[in-house]
Amino acid sequence: MKTVWFLNGLLIGCSGGGSAQFLEVEATIAETVATVVSVSWSLDQEAQVWLEYGLNGACDGEVTNSITGDSGETLILGIPPVTDVCFSAVADIDGVDLRSDSQTIRTGNIPSTFSTMTIEDYDPNLVAPGFIVGSNAIDPAMLYVVNREGDIVWYQEPLNEFLRPQMIVSQSGDSFIYNEFSKDFTDDSSKIVRVGFNGETIEEFSTPNGHHSFQELPDGTMVYIAIDVRDTDEWGPVVGDSIVEIPPDGGDPVVVYTVWDDPDIVLESHSEWGSTFYPQGKDWTHANYIYYSEDRDSYTISFRNINTVLEFDRTTGETIRSVGRYGTHDTQPGLVQYPHAGYWTAEGTLMFLTSPPGTNESWGVEVDFDDENMVADLIWSYGEGEGHKSLILGEALRLSNDNTLVNFGSTGRLIEVTPEGEEVWSLFTSVGTFPGHTTVLEDFYGEDK
Amino acid sequence: MNKILAIALLSGCGGSPEGTAVLHKDQSYDFSNVVWAQSTTITSGVDTTINWGDLTVDQLGRDMSPDSLDTVLIVRFENLTQEEVLQDASDDCIQQPDISGVVEFYPGEGEVSANLTDFSFMGYEIDPAEQILEGMGTFLLTAYSDDAAGIRMMHFIDPVQDGPSSTVELENGIASVDLSLDIDSGTRLPLDTTSIDWATLELESPCGIFPLNKFDRLTIARYDGMTVADVEDNFLYMDTIGTDVWNADIEGLSIFDLTTMTSDNGVPFTGFTADTLWLVALRCMTCDNPAPPYLAVVASE
């Protein structure tokens, strides 16, 4: 605990609420996240209680979620480092607000190894609401939530020894989940970790041979990509990929797909055949992203090295549709080149990042499928002529306001663009690191305010 | 955080507690540096040896052992010239979007050379025939030691079609950092300072405000019988020439009680005195530039 202020009930002036009073309101900085303020409070009776707070001189304007009881702990979230937060606890006593005296606490600073996030082209009126949740994958691996001003408002201590390429918001909306695995793949330390907004680890899952990407399904199932290494007569050990589910009860992992059993994908050499990315063998398929669609009850995998994005039925395991080298649907030549992070929009279009040959660029693209004519047409893209070439990772996320957040992976740059391709926000990392996968958290408190 | 300071904030009485100096840019010294590095022309697309067996003085003029290098990088800048890279390096403003690729080599025990083909990144090994070619941009070689802040040596390699088949020698004198500084140019810190608060410190640089989280060490140094000029002449050794030096890990902080510090000689810090020279520095031990981003003289006599 870095900072403790304690006031007992005798010291707390209150207004409203008749004879009811707060007995205690105590603020601390969270042990492992110096930007999170934890306020514990107690009342002399049960009530619905929340915090009102403001920054840099203001004491209101923002509201946390509420808790009903005679004591509780409420987090103030989304605060930049080294920021004075003024707050008061508010209790609903029979329709009258009982308000504690205001207190001010300063958030701590983030670790010195944390990347500086530089913001350009920011138009607050045109960006989608919310924070960017993600990580810098490597050197060091940093998990973070960053606001649109480039302030890190939530983080975990950076690590040099591991890759942490993805962090998502849990289905419950009150925690984050991230993956972690060996930096050079020489040992299998892969796991998925759920961590509370207060920075405390809630649970961990071992994910044997896991790498790159995972998802949490609505029922609590965890699904992740695992390398699937098999000996071959022609090539010796070859590294393919499988998709593995961990049941909600934490039972044994179940392989629901392996590229080795996919009749449409051929074991053959390719341009990346000499890569030693995986010391276990030839880097055949190099899956980099798994996406689950609840509406479609399907998984979609992006395979970098075989230039294919593939959707298969979760129940039957059979391919539904795919594009690229082993695609079921035809598309324009070169459109699916080193694809990353394929996923389906609410409109049923497929988005991913691609690096078309001959362009020395990466593009975020949106593809529309015509299952009758078995073609997939490019209907939107961003990146052509921009000169951003991602060698590692990347994605294109459709946002709630129809903008798109294009993550140019190893270039260190995220760019939000309007449907017309106008840049309305961009972020780049400091030298030596770059974003992994990202997602957007619109509000730490959800709708429960 | 110091408890007294926290309570003062809590009380909402305004201002800073007695003895607290709020740090601002006007107190800090004038500092600039110019980075210069040579270039070696090599044959485009051909494997080449890089040798640092004779490297005994780094680009800051500090003695070193060739086998103390822990990391050697080759960084490609597709759209920057050598001159532009040096300017950005001088400003400490090289940024990730400037970089088109990085490959690494980690020397083993006693290893003082490597071939281009020994470099890799995340398992992707370098192929000079595809990745070290004329016209692909500017290639910068940088070398680091874990036990010393900053780059130990930098050098450009310039692949040219039909260029010479030469070894790249990382050796003494092929790069330098020329420092220009005036330690006493800022407003001096009050002599009665017993704590400092840098939450609102905004030090400008050509690439924006210096990030607060990069301040990870506080140094107080006392220089008995020495002048400001004496310290300036030995600036990179400001720790070792001090009569007494107090260091504190300030990572994650923005305010610090100086009276909690104990010097390397075991002497508690009890306050500044008027009879000698005192410096206060906020430092960045993870930055390429070892010069403190903030340094101020205390208003002693």
Task: Tell me what the structure shows.
The complex is a heterodimer of chains A (449) and B (301). Chain A has 449 residues and is mainly β. Chain A is 0% helix and 49% strand. Chain A has strands at 4-5, 14-15, 22-29, 37-55, 62-63, 67-76, 84-93, 96-100, 103-106, 118-120, 131-136, 142-146, 152-155, 162-163, 167-169, 175-182, 191-196, 201-206, 210-216, 222-232, 236-246, 254-258, 282-283, 287-293, 298-303, 308-313, 319-324, 340-344, 350-354, 363-370, 375-382, 395-398, 404-407, 413-417, 423-428, 435-441. In chain A, strands 1, 2, 3, 4, 5, 6, 7, 8 and 9 form a nine-stranded antiparallel β-sheet that branches. In chain A, strands 10-35-34-33-32 form a five-stranded antiparallel β-sheet, with no helix packed on it. In chain A, a hairpin with a 7-residue loop joins strand 21 and strand 22 (254-258). Mean pLDDT of chain A is 93; it is low at 1-12. With 301 residues, chain B is mostly beta strands. Chain B contains four helices and 21 strands. In chain B, the strands form seven sheets. Chain B has a five-stranded mixed β-sheet with strand order 3-11-10-5-6, with no helix packed on it. Chain B has a four-stranded antiparallel β-sheet with strand order 18-17-20-21, with no helix packed on it. In chain B, strands 1-14-19 form a three-stranded mixed β-sheet, with no helix packed on it. In chain B, a hairpin with a 2-residue loop joins strand 15 (204-205) and strand 16. Chain B is elongated, with a radius of gyration of 22 Å. Chain A binds chain B through residues 2-3, 5, 34, 81-82, 84, 102-106, 108-114, 116, 118, 138, 184-185, 274-279, 283, 387-389, 391-392, 411-413, 428-434, and chain B through 1, 6-7, 9-10, 12, 79, 94-102, 120, 122-125, 199, 207-208, 211-216, 251-255, 284-286.
Mean pLDDT across every amino acid position of chain A: 93
| Largest sheet, strands/sense/barrel of chain A | 9 strands, antiparallel
Helix/strand structural class of chain B: mainly beta
- Regions of chain A with pLDDT < 50 over 5+ consecutive residues? 1-12
What class do helices, strands and sheet pairing of chain A give?
Answer: mainly beta
